[in-house]
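Entry 14. Structure prediction run on the chain below.
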Amino acid sequence: SSLCSPFAARARTAGPAARLRHYLRAPAPPPALWGMPLYEEKLINPLAVRFTQQHIRTTFRDGRPVEPTVHEIEAMPGDGEYDVILRAPFPHIEIIRWSPPDHGGDDGAGEGARERHWFTLDNRRLYCLQRAAAALLPKRVAAVVEILYADAGAVRRKYDSESRGLGVSVSHSCKQAALFHWNWQHEVLPPRGSTVASLYRAHLARQALLADDGRTTVDQPQ
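Output returned:
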């Protein structure tokens, strides 16, 4: 099966080491977070997670193409509020609640906290998950993610999205012109002339996504 591919095996072994290197460089967490885990696995709709970078390449770091990986993602029976759980041939993406500079906020608590959303640095994997989730709409879709409690500044350093994380350009290289642009909202809008039932299903799907996007604490995604 797709989960037994060499790509999946190598990716699973790389995740923990990368996380360890990340947190060894991170500053000490505030006292409020002492005794809490560094991350926690939860379920959330990948369409409620945003990109941190404007461009992604058509290949993963090991040279494997991104596009065929979309079709390796399996749709498993849902649990609780979700109809479908995605099972992907790569490690879970890591997400963090964050407010980009162009949202009028910062990384600290305050006025900008109201503009926070879920973001990830795993942009190519998020693209794959969003492609799979969008194809299953209006079903309520989720994927297992790892919610981070702290960030060493990598998100702010790497963030260069021009769409506040809603879309991403895909190209062979950052030096080459984009092959296409992905924004799931543009892909799933009901076509003109849709029935009332279709429009209502699309409305319900969007409301469910907004609910996941609006979850503000790490213990809310199920």
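The chain has six helices and ten strands.
Filed with the rest of this week's runs.
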